[in-house]
Amino acid sequence: MVYCNKCKHNFEPKVRTKYIEKDVEEVFFNCPKCHERYTAYYTNNKIKKMQKNRAKPILIEGEMNRLEEIYSTH
After folding, report:
1. Are 48 and 40 in contact (CB under 8 A)?
2. CA–CA gap between residue 61 and residue 46 (Å, rounded)
3. Is 55 in contact with 64 (CB distance < 8 Å)?
4. How far apart are CA 74 and CA 68, in angstroms?
5. Domain extent for 8
6. Number of structural domains the chain divides into
């Protein structure tokens, strides 16, 4: 269950993926009542490869943060 900060509605999120460019994906969900958008995370092929190779979480987090800085609209 997720709580919407904008309209205070509780709901089960329907997670969606949007390809932003090349290999960059945004994973997100929207509030079904007010349509507020919540980005869960950004990922790319580099992150997927690091996860597959069991890279240190700090390295994966660093790449995720880099993508968020580039692509976040907030």
Report:
1. no
2. 12
3. no
4. 10
5. 2-71
6. 1
